[in-house]
Amino acid sequence: MYKILSKRTLGPQIREYIVEAPEIARVAKSGQFIVLRLHERGERVPLTIVDADTRTGGVTIVVQEVGKSTREMGDHFAAGDDILDFVGPLGVPSEIENYGTVICVGGGLGIAPLYPITRDLKKAGNTVIGIIGARNKDLLFYIDQMDSVCDELIVMTDDGSNGNKGFVSNPLHDIIASDREVNRVWAIGPGIMMKVACNVTREFSVPTVVSLNSIMIDGTGMCGGCRVEVGGEAKFACVDGPEFDGHKVNFDLLMSRQRFYHEEESCALERYLASEKKEEGALV
Predict the structure, then answer these.
(1) pLDDT tens for residues 205-262?
(2) What is the model's pTM?
(3) What 3-state DSSP class applies to 79?
(4) Residue 153 is part of which domain span?
(5) Same domain, 96 and 130
(6) Pairing label, strands 14-20, 2-11
(7) Choice among 41-55, 136-150, 180-194, 213-227 with the minimum mean pLDDT
(8) Do residues 49 and 14 share a domain?
């Protein structure tokens, strides 16, 4: 069992948890992830390791409540409660080196996995330009954290409610198209955002790393559910990634596979919400 040390709300249906897992905290590196299971009947949920504290044994994760399990976690799990399974660290760590000038682009929940990579790239001596964005100001988080590890931070919102109005790909293009030398880009977020970012950097031949959030079950390469196409070859995001050369990723296939269980996921969420409503009614 793994105890939740703290829980806080970052935005609408976005929560940050710190879970006591000292063995994972001791060896975790940026870019890696864990797979958790709330209880015996729970599904396996892969989540990026945002931070790890070797002193307290705490591992930080950020959860967006979009499906049955994540909604259940938000509704019924708080500081002091135990999670049944918390497995990791899984995946290949980010390749952190001193590349020179790097741009770190995060969209939506992608800001969470981007933060530790940005932090470590800064520690490695890079000049770091951060670009983060969301649909609106309420969905933005970790602005202060990102600002603390960037030499320059640009904030974007689709509606202009915070920072600049537009998409993260807009300043990405403007910076690369200027006279500034950019040696590498990290882009993490929704599939379409990563695809557009890679189209921008491909035009200027800037190496670009993406982190793929494909469907995942066991996280060990056994089930094949996280299969992605990279450079015309089948790769498994859990053991070969989650980070890949963005210019080689088949994003259309990735986004199609992400919706493979959409109907089943919707049914599970509807049943959960119906049971919650029924239970609330019984308590009235």
Answers:
(1) 999 999 988 777 777 777 777 788 899 999 888 888 899 999 999 988 888 877 766 7
(2) 0.90
(3) coil
(4) 92-210
(5) yes
(6) antiparallel
(7) 213-227
(8) yes
Half-sphere exposure of 46 (CA within 13 A, CB side): 24
Claim to verify: residue 223 and residue 272 sit in the same structural domain: yes
Helix or strand run (H / E) with residue 86: strand 85-90
Q: What is the dihedral of CA 210, 110, 224, 52, to 10 degrees?
A: 100
User: Cα separation of 111 and 101, whole Å?
Assistant: 19
Q: Is the residue at 284 inside a domain?
A: no
Q: Which of 255, 263, 172 is nearest to 212 (CA)?
A: 255
Q: Report residue 229 as tokens.
A: 């196409």
What backbone phi and psi angles, to 5 degrees, belong to 15? Answer: -125, 145
What is the domain-level CATH number for residue 164? 3.40.50.80
Cis peptide before 46 (omega within 30 of 0): no
CB atoms within 10 A of CB 259: 10
pLDDT-based confidence at 90, cuts 50/70/90?
very high
82 shares its domain with 149: no
- pLDDT on residue 266: 79
In sequence order, the 6+-apart residues with CB closer than 8 A to the CB of 196 are 167, 169
Cα 232 to Cα 63, 196, 257, 259: the distances in Å are 32, 19, 16, 21
Query: Phi and psi for 233 in degrees, rounded to 5?
Result: -115, 150
Is there a single domain that holds both residue 225 and residue 206?
no
Domain co-membership, 62 together with 30: yes
Task: Say which residue the tokens 């990791």 belong to.
Answer: 88
Has residue 235 been placed in a domain?
A: yes
Mean pLDDT confidence for 28-41 = 93
Q: Which two tokens stand for residue 205?
A: 């031949």
